[in-house]
Amino acid sequence: MAAAPAVRIPVFGLVRLLGLAAAAGILFWAVHYRGGMALSTNEESKLSIFNVHPVLMLIGLVALNGEALLAYKTVPGTKKLKKLVHLALQFFAMFLCIIGLWAVWKFHDERKIDHLYTLHSWLGLTCIIFFSLQWATGFWTFWYPGGSRSGRASLLPWHVFFGIFIYVLAIATSVSGLLEKSIFMQSTKMIGRFSTEAMFMNSLGMLLVVLGALVILAIVSPGPGKIDTYRGSSE
């Protein structure tokens, strides 16, 4: 089996920088280009309800989840503290996702739009279900009440695998969402194909792809004194 690549760049710093850039980018898009965000249902704010969805989903499933995946390598202190940070970040991410899912469902209801008819919506719902099950299984097995040592050891490789898989799915869902929204706005003449907003959305999608690659690289690459967290350790 080939060894994981050794990283010669400050990958953790780059992940954090790009994660912040992605979160700031989607927030800038919602406020600057799409008129802001709202959770109320008055006539003036109906379109702004939708904007809550991409902002919270990207911040939760991509930015916060990426930080959570790397918590064992980036957080100083005991393994218990690292585990707590990992669980807490993903719990907060899940909370944001619930609000984001509610916002888009509410938007569809308000605009009389069918639910769950696009590939993006299927990917998103699958991602949220897997993410929730992954968190619940991890909490039950690795935190409270906690499984046996052999049970934790046997589950850990699968827990890591599905963590990476769900993150890749979150990136794919976010990129497909940007594409879907961009195509819809272009088809209804809201924006031009080569407008500043369209190019910004494309750039944000490319940023997410790069961020996803760096997060996965940071996970699989060995780190001094920390690689055992991902290989063979069941604590």
TrEMBL record:
TM segment ranges: 12-31, 52-72, 84-105, 117-136, 156-179, 200-220
Xref: InterPro entries: CYB561/CYBRD1-like, Cyt_b561/ferric_Rdtase_TM
Topology of the protein relative to the lipid bilayer: Multi-pass membrane protein
Obligatory cofactor(s): heme b
Major place of residence: membrane
Keywords: Electron transport, Heme, Iron, Membrane, Metal-binding, Oxidoreductase, Transmembrane, Transmembrane helix, Transport
Gene Ontology CC entries for this record: membrane
UniProt-annotated location(s): Membrane
Boundaries of every Cytochrome b561 domain copy: 14-220
Molecular functions per Gene Ontology: metal ion binding; oxidoreductase activity
Gene3D superfamilies to which the protein is assigned, alphabetical: 1.20.120.1770
Function of the protein: Two-heme-containing cytochrome. Catalyzes ascorbate-dependent trans-membrane electron transfer by utilizing a concerted H(+)/e(-) transfer mechanism.
Name this polypeptide is given: Cytochrome b561 domain-containing protein
